[in-house]
Amino acid sequence: MVELAVPGSLGITVAGESLVLLPDRALWWPRMSLLAIADLHLGKGDHFRRAGIALPRGGTAHDLDRLDGLLVQTRATRLLVLGDLLHAAVHDAQWRDAWIAWRAGRQALSVELVGGNHDRALTGRPGVAASLGIHLHGHALAFAPFLFVHDPAHGAQADGYRLGGHLHPVVRLPGVPRLPAFLFGETAGVLPAFTAFAGGWRVDRTSETRLFACAPDAVVDVSV
After folding, report:
1. Are 56 and 62 in contact (CB under 8 A)?
2. What H or E segment, with its residue span, contains residue 165?
3. How far apart are CA 200 and CA 170, in angstroms?
4. Mind listing the UniProt keywords for this protein, alphabetically (predicted)?
């Protein structure tokens, strides 16, 4: 296992590779200096407020601050977003301005995106993605032994252990609110939604999967 000074982190082995699960809903691949997250959903709060749904402001800034902390802790040189970096349109100035300011402070960081269903404004306009400092990989990235995707069902016929997001897995434990969770099966794994503003798909423990809950200060193995 990998020794990493990130409080509450948990090292596991997947497809023969040593990975580290971080309590703030991210996956760290030390050998490749790669930090992976899924479902950032920038601008989601603004999108809902325009629809007349009252939500507190500051969600994008909060998520970017969390992300910055993880990058400092891991010293990652690559950030890979497994889909849904956006929630809605690129022209939303509020999230865009926050992103540009954040990106300007991380010039040496490679920010890469495997396109998700909410990312059409980027995947269909590579020039816009480039202007935001984002490198596009289409809808899948083969990086042996993994196949990084957004929807874990995508690429089932391809070689490689699939790692994705999209499903927003959560787990319910006795006496505590639902917690975001990592889920690992025989051929695919799912990361929790990174944004703090996300719904969830309840995952139950089975003998065929490994399940890890993201408690506030630690990743907890809740597998059977």
Report:
1. no
2. none
3. 6
4. Endonuclease, Hydrolase, Ligase, Nuclease
Distances (CA, A) of 11 to 30, 86, 125, 142, 173: 10, 29, 37, 22, 22
Domain boundaries, the chain: 10-160
Distances in Å between the alpha carbon of 178 and those of 56, 101, 170, 182?
A: 21, 33, 6, 13
3-state secondary structure of 114: coil
* Residues facing 28 on adjacent strands: 20, 35
CA distance 177 to 111: 32
Read off the pTM. 0.91
Pair of tokens at residue 199: 């719904």
pLDDT digit string, tens, across residues 185-203: 999 999 999 998 777 889 9
Quote the CA–CA distance of 183 and 110 in Å, as a whole number: 26
Span 10-160: which CATH code? Answer: 3.60.21
Query: 45 pLDDT band (50/70/90 cuts)?
Result: low
Q: What is the average per-residue pLDDT within 82-100?
A: 79
